Amino acid sequence: MVIIDEVYRNISFDMPEQELFILLERVKAKKEEDIEELKNKIDKYEQKRRAEEALYQSMSPIRRLFTGRPASHHQAVEYMVHVKERFKKIDAIKRSIRELDQVLDRLRLPIRDSNEVFLSPELIREIRLLQEMEASQE
Questions:
Q1: Residue 1 and residue 19: Cα distance in Å, rounded?
Q2: Which one-letter DSSP state was computed for residue 45?
Q3: CA-based nearest residue to 37, from 101, 90, 100
Q4: 10 Å Cβ neighbour count for 20?
Q5: Is 26 exposed, middle or buried (0-12, 13-18, 19+ CB in 10 A)?
């Protein structure tokens, strides 16, 4: 099976079909882990904000006056930007997973029209990184 970069049209990998299938499954699993990690970071950030707000609400009115709100306008904007960036990353990862699913579905077909698979440069980079990481662990 041959993997071709869909942008530059050069051959990136040439490997047996079963190896390719297993490799793409591992890349997909890694991307799903990345999504969970990003969601956990968003949750932790949200918990921190809630804890700060709860602490502020538990203060006496005089102390609140001198302490100020924990979520100032600047912090609120920073929070929105932070969360928005994380969700953009999640969306990009989900697009990559959809692309991987299409390729994996194609590999599952008993009869195919060609022995070539076209992938985005980003996914090819991910495959190479995963291979390098696994090679360094061995």
A1: 9
A2: H
A3: 90
A4: 20
A5: middle
Answer whether 117's CB lies under 8 Å from 107's CB. Answer: yes
Residue-by-residue pLDDT tens, the chain, 138 positions: 788 778 777 777 788 888 888 888 999 999 999 999 999 988 988 888 888 778 878 888 877 777 766 656 566 677 778 888 999 999 999 999 999 998 888 888 877 677 788 888 888 888 888 888 888 887
According to DSSP, the residues that pair with 8 across neighbouring strands are none
Instruction: List, edge to edge, every strand of the sheet that includes 11-14.
Output: 11-14, 2-5, 116-119
Residue of 123, 121, 86, 116 whose CA lies nearest to 101: 123
Distance from C-alpha of 23 to C-alpha of 51, rounded to nearest angstrom? 42
Residue 72 one-letter amino acid: S
Token output for 8: 């530059």
The β-bridge partners of 117 are: 3
Q: How far apart are CA 81 and CA 78, in angstroms?
A: 5
